[in-house]
Amino acid sequence: MTSATSTEQAIELELQSVSKSYGKNLAVKSITASIPQGKVSVIVGPSGCGKSTLLRIISGLDFPTQGSVTFNGAPVRGVPEGLAMVFQDYSRSLFPWMRVDRNIGFPLRHISADERRQRVQEAIDAVGLKGKEKLYPWQMSGGMQQRAAIARALASHPKLLLMDEPYASVDAQTRADLEDLLLDIHATLGVTVLVVTHDIDESIYLADHVIALSAPPSVVAETVEVDLPRPRNQISTKQDPRFVELRAHVTSLLRSH
Amino acid sequence: MSTLYKARGKEAAAGTVPRAPKKGFNGKRLLLRLLVPAILVGVWWALSASPSTGLFIANPLKAVLRIGQDFLSTDPSTFFLGKATYEHLLPSLGRAMAGLGLATAAGVAAGIALGSLPVAAALFQPLIHLGRSLPSPALLGVFFLLFGTGDAPKIFLIAFGVVWPILFNTIDGVNSIGHQRLQAATVFKIRPFDVLFHVILPGASPKIFAGLRTSLSLSLIIMIISELQKSKNGLGYLLVTTQRTFDYTNFWAILIVLGFLGVTLNFLFHIAERRVLAWHRGATQQHD
């Protein structure tokens, strides 16, 4: 039942005592963590604990004040190859002047038109947006827009998929659907996934391991291995006594720090 | 930008772009709208018939007939357009559009540069405020000195006068695109060329169009002013000469032509804007 220990895993992404301060304000304090290849890792922490800052640093959009980030063995300077991101607010990260298929294919302008079309179609099928290709994002519900944003990330065939509070702006039912969609995609594609969220239930439901952050200045409170079986299910997994136990544990981690 | 919107007509026909519900023909509304113009024409007619003011105010019907005589013709080889159209209307319009085109190119380019680089915006802000605050007709003499008396000083004066709304709105538009969209462009490694033409330009286009609308009207105003002096043709030139020769029928005919020109240009602009910004109308309707 226990998953493979992290020492046997290939490491995709490594954070070495990363800290970030804005002036005198220390947002992130010395974070060290390893994200194993092909697994779902979730960073969970209270609001304002610097989760999004951390994700920006990992994606090369921002730089740490101290420490280093290594992706596939190379230090991150600028946005690395093989990384894709799903932003928190789909309505502000999709391009409202492009139809869904163009939004998804736009980052692929460097590859041939045929291959691009094929990749866009695969991504659209993967997120269940078949038939919506010619709609504009604003003609779709929030959940569908976030699916389009996920498809855009998948179409670039990333090694590492970063998600910044991806389901924070959708309703509960849509959220559950999108969580299952992510688990499906992960099971099919085997891509390394790193999600940032403040939702403890979500973190455990999705993750192979949960990196719990303390309140700012943030440190890693504990990395919790989630040994729940896959495939997971919104009802049975969440009723599993182990799930309840892990949830209590992570909750206490976030409280005590 | 053109490839982006090329297929719009066809796809819009497929019904994916929501349209405003069509209003049926409403006779009452039409009557209401025609009421004020009808009264104005009536007052005009009365004033033209009065002995005290009739000297300067031409009969509206005569003015309209004069337009037919001067600006239109029955000759198919000139596309049914008269001498005055070729000698005065089209040169005027050409200069206004050349000035507007120049201002659009310069205003959008500078606006994108200043909108993307806060340092540049801070550096040039005093200069921009000075330029905007200068009443451009006052510079006519300077432009004559610099560029002679041909079309060039007029075109540059129009461009100088109308560039400001375009510039300010473009800066505003670039700032309205949103941090996350630009971050998304960075994360997905969109090439700078594509960021410029497929993210920044379309993202700023609603504001750019708002600026263009103001500049279009302004370009006609400055067009007339630029033709009042040292001119050999143009509608502004005609306005001056007809007054000097007491040809008031012609003078009023030109005013009507100018009104018609303004309305037509605004209408064409409106159609272009509806096509290019179809996505924006939909997106804002959605969020309201």
UniProtKB/TrEMBL annotation, chain A:
Entry superkingdom: Bacteria
One family name in Pfam for this protein: ABC_tran
UniProt keywords, alphabetically: ATP-binding, Nucleotide-binding, Transport
Protein name: ABC transporter ATP-binding protein
Lineage: Bacteria, Bacillati, Actinomycetota, Actinomycetes, Micrococcales
Organism listed in the record: Paenarthrobacter nitroguajacolicus (Arthrobacter nitroguajacolicus)
Positions of the ABC transporter domain: 13-240
InterPro entries found in the cross-reference section: AAA+_ATPase, ABC_transporter-like_ATP-bd, ABC_transporter-like_CS, ABC_transporter_ATP-bind, P-loop_NTPase
GO molecular function: ATP binding; ATP hydrolysis activity
